[in-house]
Amino acid sequence: MTTITAGVDIGSTGVKAVLFDGSILARSVLPTGWSPAETGERALADLLLERGLRRTDLARVTATGYGRKIFREADDIITEITCHAAGAFFLEPEARSVLDLGGQDSKAIALGGDGSVVDFLMNDKCAAGTGRFLTMTANLLEVDLRWFDALGEGETHLISSMCAVFAESEMVGLLASGVAKEALARGVLDSITSRSAGMLQRVAARGPVLFTGGLARCAPLRRMLERKTGLEFRSSEHSQTAGALGAAVLGAMKARVRRAIVV
Amino acid sequence: MATLRSSRVLLDHIADESPAAPVRVKEAKERGVPVVGTFCVFTPWELVRAIGGVSVSLCSTSEKPIAAAEAHLPRNLCPLIKASYGFALTDTCPYFHFCDIVIGETTCDGKKKMYEYLNRLRPVHVMQLPQTTEGETARALWRAETKRLKDVLESFYGRTITDDALREAIRLKNRERRVLNRFFAVARLDPSPLTGLEILAVSDYLKYSMASEEALSVVEELTAALEEERRLGKGREAEGRKRILITGCPLGKSLHKVIRAVEEQGGGAVVAFENCGNLKSSSDLVDESCPPMEAIADRYLRIPCSCMSPNPRRLEFLSRFCGEYAVDGVVDVILQACHTYSVESFSVREHLKALGIPYIAVETDYSQGDEGQLSTRMNAFLEMI
Ligand code: SF4
Ligand code: SF4
Question: Under a CB-based contact definition with an 8 Å cutoff, are residues B334 and B359 in contact?
Fold first, then answer.
């Protein structure tokens, strides 16, 4: 009998769900909307429907993310840090750390050889160093976010402000004085790089680093991070659902332990 | 022997008593008892007692008066300093309202500069605290400052402080410290029969009860009841919780959110507080066999506050308490813009790492907006241990 588990990651902007039976069986991403708990339930129900399964076929459901505590269906509640680590380790067993740069927050996690968390840091108070900073810059430069992904090497105009709010007015001034958009954009990426490298350093991160979150797609950012830290960065097509995946993986481990006790 | 009241009854009694503390200060004031305001555990309590006075803590941990304080103080200043000043400025703190004089110390920069403004609202006497605990010069300075405080109190109140009164005060405060130490030690049981908030409620209760014999015996009875209940297996606590020690900046109501985040969902149990007013203050006694003024001065200079440089005793205390309380992890609570504690965070982390004890630092303020973030950090930390 295979054990099937589910992981549901209720984030502030998106709900991600994964069905897991030793490998990824199905996954989905929905916008969180106004009712995180209902969206979480719907995400799970949709996946079950898609695979022709019932709730009773699931050995365990694990909730994670900022809305984890309001998700009533859950057998276990585990924080996104622990789940993210487990998910990253499943996707990339060689990874020794994780850098997650999302839209609202960022985190650096140092991993043990078994995918457990050795140390971690989170930033969810300050916009600099998260996707918010990039979105803000995109609006200011009147480009879309994909534009950054294609940014080549070239002149970089460093931003001196440590705070995203001050950086914005600094950039307005720089644009007015004729600094090129591209140079400014590289400056912003450089500033995100410095912050992220600092976080990785503080958790004594080793390589390879699994790079996840919305900003992981940005190739120039990844290059800068590699140069700055001297570590190898990897990414995965499943990186967006790493938290939900990790929740399902941890659920499977629990189910196995429980079965062992029952037998 | 009279039967003990249960720990539940006693803890409820302690919770009911707390709101009465300001009333007791008002009554003391009306009886002509000197009311001395203090901010920090460096103020020698025994001197205030010896002049027949009561000392009240003005150290505020409420978010409310911060906006008012920002009319005079910068925004990026420690919330403890702003809240304390704001309460005084708006005259909304009963303790400040009733105090005749305030004693401050040159601890951190923000506090000592704030005292300059506070002096406009109430006479403030600032003790010159040396920046280090080591060496003869520091000791001589602090002994002289302790003597100067005695002179100031004597001339301010027109009373004399006798050696006998000092000895009596030393004995009383040492007794309170011992009572507290025995109470704190109950949390060494595994699992601890207390929650972190209960531990704080008891130390606050003693802080505001002016060392009354009645309050001391309530805490002694509570300690005995908790031990007895454990012996009889009448525990009410969950097993398997991770044992957490809290260190860092002074705590207060607004920072209870950190303790709640540790203890929610039964993940952790706060078993020890190294912060001011708790183990840091109670575990060191004044030497009763030495001349009182020197003994008092020397005891207070030994306080391992991050304002001191170097501050090796904080690390020694941490090692000791982590061992005594079988601690699984340490949470360092740092108030925003507190330089001394945030700089020390690195050395505390290194020290604990060498001992193999997991450590996390959280930076926060008195607002309640970061409860979700604290919960994620604390739960992830507990999962990591
Ligand atoms: S932390 Fe230092 S300055 Fe603050 S109350 Fe404690 S002893 Fe005083
Ligand atoms: S918490 Fe830090 S900044 Fe605030 S009063 Fe105490 S030592 Fe000073």
Answer: no
* CA gyration radius, chain B: 20
Of B376, B380, B384, the CB nearest to A66: B376
Report the SS3 class of residue B207.
Answer: helix
pLDDT per residue as tens digits for the range B194-204? 999 999 999 99
Strands of chain B (E only): list them. 35-38, 54-57, 101-105, 124-127, 242-248, 268-273, 329-335, 359-364
Query: Which are the contacts of A113, defined by CB distance < 8 A and separation ≥ 6?
Result: none
pTM of the predicted model as reported, rounded to 2 decimal places: 0.89
CA nearest ligand 1 atom 2, residue: B305
CA distance A259 to B2: 52
Q: How far is CA A252 from CA B38, B118, B268, B378, in A?
A: 56, 60, 24, 24
User: Please, what are the domains in chain A?
Assistant: 1-92+237-263 (3.30.420.40), 96-235 (3.30.420.40)
Give every CB contact of residue A42 below 8 A, 6+ residues apart in sequence. A30
- Find all residues with CB under 8 Å of B383, minimum gap 6, and list them: A78, A79, A81, A82, A117, B267
Interhelix angle B213-231/B196-208, nearest 10 degrees = 160
CB spacing of B383 vs A122 below 8 angstroms: no
Q: What would the pLDDT profile of B127-153 be if each residue is shown by its tens digit?
A: 999 999 999 999 999 999 999 999 999
pLDDT in tens, A244-262: 999 999 999 998 877 766 5
Tokens of A260: 């062992």
**Measured between alpha carbons, how far is B53 from A2 in angstroms, rounded to an integer?**
74
Spatial separation of the C-alpha atoms in residues A23 and A252, rounded to whole Å: 11
CA atoms within 13 A on the CB side of B175: 16
3-state secondary structure of A19: strand
Q: Which residues of B touch A81 (CB under 8 A)?
A: 376, 380, 383-384
